[in-house]
Amino acid sequence: MEVFADRAEAGAQLAERLLDARDPVVLALPRGGVAVALPIARRLDAVLDVLVTRKIGYPAAPELGVGAIAEGGEPVFDLRMLRRLRMTPESVADVVERERRELARRVRAYRGDRPLPPLEGREVIVADDGLATGGTARAALRAVGTAKPAKLTLAVPVGAQETVASLREEADEIVVLLTPIDFRAVGQWYAHFEQLTDADVLDLLGRR
């Protein structure tokens, strides 16, 4: 059942729920989160930037996430999943190193040599297009948390109920428009949910 026409519409709806934010920094999780974050930053007249994350996949089936890493943070593992697979964090060290390299490549592609904006003492809104397992969002929130923001908010249009509940301890506030019982995938709640490219991300950032 489609609820949002596209990520931009979802972001515009989220922005109306974030109007109490005081001079926030909006950090988008690329790639899809950038299209959600742009209308939020515009509505709040906020600084917009990206916070790059990468999923850490199970080597035999890379689409199965066993953890994630965000720039400025350490890997965050799904320990229950690792135990189920009879693995340890050390078992995926090669995958972590590969994802660190790809993370660094994307940071250079999206931001060049420019660092993240200062976050200490600021309100920070981390935005993505949805929450399935929540692995990358968790890694992002923990990485931002080390910068000691005044308030840390996670803003997403849609998320699995159990995932949203599991992330509440990672942020001061979670703003989510929809937590459907029959959640199967983020894309099912959008009429248009095309995959974005690095060029799309740069275009969106340039339109701030």
UniProtKB/TrEMBL annotation:
<keyword id="KW-0808">Transferase</keyword>
<protein>
    <submittedName>
        <fullName>Phosphoribosyltransferase</fullName>
    </submittedName>
</protein>
<dbReference type="Pfam" id="PF00156">
    <property type="entry name" value="Pribosyltran"/>
</dbReference>
<keyword id="KW-0328">Glycosyltransferase</keyword>
<dbReference type="InterPro" id="IPR000836">
    <property type="entry name" value="PRTase_dom"/>
</dbReference>
<dbReference type="InterPro" id="IPR029057">
    <property type="entry name" value="PRTase-like"/>
</dbReference>
<feature type="domain" description="Phosphoribosyltransferase">
    <location>
        <begin position="13"/>
        <end position="165"/>
    </location>
</feature>
<dbReference type="GO" id="GO:0016757">
    <property type="term" value="F:glycosyltransferase activity"/>
</dbReference>
